Amino acid sequence: MAKKAIITGFIASLLFVSLIAYSLPAFAQGPDLTPAKPEIISVSGITPKKDMIVHILVLVQPGADRNEAAVAALAQQGARPFTSDEFSTIALYWDQFGDNDPGNDKVIQNYNPKNDPTNGAGFTALTNTHTSWNNVTTSSFTFEYGEDTRRCPSLVKECRGDQTFDGNNDVAWLKLNSPTTLAVTWSGTLIDEADIALNTDFNWETDGTNDFDVETVFLHENGHALGLGHSIDFSAVMFPSYQEVNRVLQQDDIYGVSFLYPATNNPEPDPELDPEPTPGVSSVQQIVYVLAGGKNNDKHLLVTIHVVADESDLSGVDVSISLSSDSSRKGWSGSGTTEGDGTVTFQLKNARSLCYTTIVNSVSSDPSWDGAQPQDDGYCKP
Fold first, then answer.
1. Does the N-terminal or the C-terminal CB of the chain have fewer CB atoms within 10 Å?
2. Does 313 lie in the same domain as 196?
3. Does the residue 131 lie in any domain?
């Protein structure tokens, strides 16, 4: 029998905070490594009474406990780890991209050059990340540069006064409270606003060679600012750990922003076309939906993915998918591994009576996946 992978449900902006990432505590994600040098992990937390969340890049020294470092970094920001019922608030969704008015499909971001340790190169690094996210042709999301500003980002705790939503999305350089915090991104759970600050206490570089690369960090933080969580793909910009300079969006990053903000001019796939297997590559066959469980055997939705190569089943292949409904802002993601018959079955527990469709995000196989989406007629649960 094919292995079942439980799909975790999130609001649409959370689709890519994946199930596998939660094998570690949700607030201290990252690879289970014992590095000989400091490790940088990504931490997320919440300040419930303020309706705000924060994403932090934290430096963890060799031998230090990551979870302790995560909790300490959150405490410095006046935040705490998420509880299991708060995962649906981890990221935001910019409502203007769903109001059917393409004229306002943009997020304006401003830059405060004060304290910039890069002699102005930080501004270029920031706007380069705008170009990277804007150039995803399958997404309608757009960053737009607003203006240079003297404002201290109003959501950032280190700014004077109370944390407030001032309607601006500002980026600045500040001396952050924790000496191990590289950067913070604050955003609202109810109000669309995102502010970013990088810590001036670190040795920042812009040549892409060593130390802490400004553009790599801005690219990751702007992923949070647009509403993405973390990816399970080690190569992705949104992977929850800084490994090395990474200024190029990877396929999982592209899937994420495209799913959250799909391009309005993308042609609909032809459901009559099922991709033919290509010699030397793997492919995904037609998606199969069935109901199971409960008194009437209709409680859970099972989604089966079948991977083949040269007409042979492929086992041991890691597959990640996203499941969505056209009648709900709710979305789900999941990861699993194919069994001997080449299939992996994902289970959406307590599935609501909605119409569902599936996108295959990644297939890690040998031979490599051809990247073609399988035929998906979708499924409407009565």
1. C
2. no
3. yes
